[in-house]
Protein 1
Amino acid sequence: MKARVYVSYKTTVLDPQGQTIQSALNGLGHKTITAVRQGKYFDIELQAGSSKEQAQKEMDQVARDVLANPVMEDYRVEILD
């Protein structure tokens, strides 16, 4: 089983890297792009035999405590088969 955790800035937090990417894309002629928010994701392998419910609970805790800064970032966990 595999988990994927997505982490990105909250919408209320300034994203200077996203703004730089958006500006570069506009400079390359992609004028229809008005905003970019950048983020990151983690692929995490889980021990075989774990239940989806337990995996979801554990990955939520890992994301909240280790992978994301809850003051500035949101996260989303997907459990993949």
Protein 2
Amino acid sequence: MAKKKEEKTNVMRILDQKKIPYTARFYEDSQGPQGTREYGVHVAQALGQDPRRGFKTLVARGASQSIYVFEVPVAENLDLKKAAKAVGEKSVAMLHQKELLPLTGYVHGGCSPIGMKKQYPTVFHRTALDYETVYISAGKIGAQVELAPRALLDLLGASTADIVVDQG
């Protein structure tokens, strides 16, 4: 995976504006499909990253019709029951892919919790705070940002909870 030409994304511009330090990481999109556990692990390995520090953005709708954003390590799966409990909903279901762009402004595989059309309640898996830095999408396929998790959670007004499927 060769590096792509570095260009600022909206996520990077927001971080610059808020004076939140980050490191941009670029990669060639050579292995699909985006959004899968294998893809996230592949990207992390290609960039020499620990997959436990890479977080993927998942968007769901609660029983109340409210929209929620969940951030889970790339090698993990979201537990919908735990996610619902974390946001006080009876249940949550993943958004259909066709709903993602109109609601968030991002495409599948390039969705970031920063800079969505509207700021939705956001929950990170509790392990995010275990690391000095974490990686999230920079808002387009082929770009990530690495930053301190506390700064990220503070920016988003996000919380943490155990929201992944237990490895049994």
Protein 3
Amino acid sequence: MSKSIKHILKKDLVIKVGGKLWLESEGERFFGPGPLELLEKIEETGSIRNAAKAMNMSYKKAWELINHLNGQTNFPIVIPQTGGEKGGGSTLTSEGMELIKYYKVLRKPFKTFLENESERLKI
């Protein structure tokens, strides 16, 4: 662990270490807080359209995220189903659920790290 920088900081400042965690490939992000929320909303609503609406995201943007995500994996993460009596819908695959679980587990030590570093900077 590196040395604290408290001696550099003004005493009346409240410093918090922040950051976001994402997965990337070749320097390009493909999974993080936004795609996680989209997948969770798809699971909840059974629809990409309804998930996008719940997030105030365009349907086109939601599809772009899903297509990009599916392009980074060996298995589809979301499977859309068109038309039919129920009007179609979308489902997460078991791999999609596994990705969500992995990311949430990964966030725990990351959050702890941010909290610990913020605590170290308290004066």
Protein 4
Amino acid sequence: MKRLSIYTKESSNIEDENIIDYIFKLLKSLNISGATVFKTIYSYGSSKNVSNIYIEMESYNMGIRIDAVDEDCKIYEVIDRLKDKNILMIIAECEVIYGDGESD
């Protein structure tokens, strides 16, 4: 299993669509097992411009991380579809553990 982490800004667009919506539609269309969006509190990228939730002018475009987990071949399909979109992506090997929701 692989975990794909995608890093971007929340106001970014791909093909005139919000990047979060675009990526989620892609993940669902490829039947990716699960995905979650995380909004940052503080962030900076290659430009070194700091965004944080405490500065009103910069809080509208905070950093976003989207994590998706699935089989290697499906994760590589997502990467292939996004590789020309100027998005930072990181993959990592992971072990998925399912709990039954019961405690001892």
